[in-house]
Amino acid sequence: xxxxxxxxxxxxxxxxxxxxxxxxxxxxxxxxxxxxxxxxxxxxxxxxxxxxxxxxxxxxxxxxxxxxxxxxxxxxxxxxxxxxxxxxxxxxxxxxxxxxxxxxxxxxxxxxxxxxxxxxxxxxxxxxxxxxxxxxxxxxxxxxxxxxxxxxxxxxxxxxxxxxxxxxxxxxxxxxxxxxxxxxxxxxxxxxxxxxxxxxxxxxxxxxxxxxxxxxxxxxxxxxxxxxxxxxxxxxxxxxxxxxxxxxxxxxxxxxxxxxxxxxxxxxxxxxxxxxxxxxxxxxxxxxxxxxxxxxxxxxxxxxxxxxxxxxxxxxxxxxxxxxxxxxxxxxxxxxxxxxxxxxxxxxxxxxxxxxxxxxxxxxxxxxxxxxxxxxxxxxxxxxxxxxxxxxxxxxxxxxxxxxxxxxxxxxxxxxxxxxxxxxxxxxxxxxxxxxxxxxxxxxxxxxxxxxxxxxxxxxxxxxxxxxxxxxxxxx
Length: 476
Fold this sequence. Notes:
Radius of gyration: 24 Å
CATH architecture of the largest domain: 3-Layer(bba) Sandwich
């Protein structure tokens, strides 16, 4: 039996960071991976999806050029070359990850799928058995596929499969109004694929503010067919086609597609681990309670990190959780509580959708005394110059202190606005301090200043908000 101080299950982003953190405390550790090396982000997530989106943005820019009085030829989209670049660059990113893996001591790397045979005992499918004093679980997540899609057979795919296409298909039905569904549906549509996006329950990405959610649905719906709460009666397979029957505007409709892309959520990858043998108390999902500041499960020697922890399934959060889990597994039993960064989420649609800090729903559910500042980008100066003048930003501030609490937005170049706000929230900044920061002219960020001024008025700090034309000329 192999004995180690720390065993890390999963060599994705969280697992690799956990390894580096634990390595500072002990040389008796092992990193176990049952699948291919290369993080989810690099192989099938954030990087290949952004490569596809970049191609879609290039095509969209050509179609938008006549609005500036420039008339290029209509874009000719070569699907094989689009997907070829996606795969080449994807493989390059995966290569960087594999190089990092190769830098790890080979005696610390084990291939195989692990499961618990006791609180400290792991058995790999290779037959190897290991005793680990502490264990970090960083197995990631897997797609959730409703039984409703079973009739589609092998015409059903998930986002992982898209990046293996040698060419762009003619038509795809996308199910799921979350970040993955929104990004891929819009990108494919802009690359000439006939797409219809079916949501459920009215959700649009991570948004919880009703006004911002409605604005986002309108912005996406102006670009491609999108129903955030679709009434779908049936999906089935006919030959090589997927048939979707649904209701639109009170009328029955039927459309045929080459593929059904399911972007209906992801769940922690716990199957096969046999967590019941770990000694942890599991809930109805088969998962234990995890402290997000220590990543420790129920005060035990077992830690979780990344998507499997079901906290915030984003790369930077996975890296943070890997660092916390690995550090605490390495120093166990002296566990330290770590502060977490301000939540920040970005959906790379056009316009961007983003959330920062506390959400509208969280503040409302907690009965937090807060006010909202807003800006509509329809007449924002730089947004109109760029013909990107659509979107809505709501920023939330605490009554009494003026402290910035969070924001939700669908906004042009919102990825940058979201970062500014995340830094401000994490710094504990109040609205008046934020307004004292420099704002250049003309920039999209002046829209943020408008929202902050509106928030200041609504918090009772100012008498009025200067008219929006202040962003188009001289003003304080």
